Amino acid sequence: MKIKVGNKNYELNFGIGFVRELDQRNGVGAKGVKFGMGLTKTLYGMRVYDPACLSDILYSATWADSTRPTPQAVDRMLESENTDIEKLFDDVTAELSKANTVKLAAKNMRA
């Protein structure tokens, strides 16, 4: 799946690097110890159509691109009237359900 942020297209990669990126951004921790769970928290946010979670997923999925957009650029893209955010939620959810590294977690969130 690709998204356009600004005037550049980015390939989204939902691999292990994506999961690690979400853990860094949204992971659970206590007293300096991180426990991960970024994927789980973010998948729940997708279920309730939380635009901040969608933004985190899109940004995190560009982890493999050396010219990745900034989180603020992703936010601006989502805020644009030219973005069909409902379709984007649906498309990203479908891609997450197919990606080998996250499909089981996505499936369990639907159960």
Defining key terms:
111 residues; mainly alpha; two-stranded antiparallel ribbon; two-stranded antiparallel sheet; 6 helices; 4 strands
Sheet-strand content, in percent, reads 5-15%
The poorly predicted ranges are: none
Biggest beta-sheet profile: 2 strands, antiparallel
Classify the secondary structure makeup into a structural class: mainly alpha
The H-and-E topology, N to C, reads as: EEHEEHHHHH
- Numbering strands along the chain, what is their spatial order in the largest sheet? 1-2
Tally of DSSP helical segments = 6
Question: How are the SSEs placed, and which strands pair?
Answer:
Elements: E1 2-5, E2 8-11, H1 16-26, E3 29-30, E4 33-34, H2 38-47, H3 51-60, H4 71-79, H5 85-98, H6 103-110
Antiparallel strand pairs: 1-2, 3-4
Task: Please characterize this protein's 3D structure.
It is a single chain. The protein is mainly alpha-helical and 111 residues long. The protein has one domain (2-110). Helix content is 56%, strand content 11%. It has helices at 16-26, 38-47, 51-60, 71-79, 85-98, 103-110; strands at residues 2-5, 8-11, 29-30, 33-34. The strands form two sheets. Strands 1-2 form a two-stranded antiparallel ribbon. A hairpin with a 2-residue loop joins β3 and β4. α2 (38-47) packs across α3 (51-60).
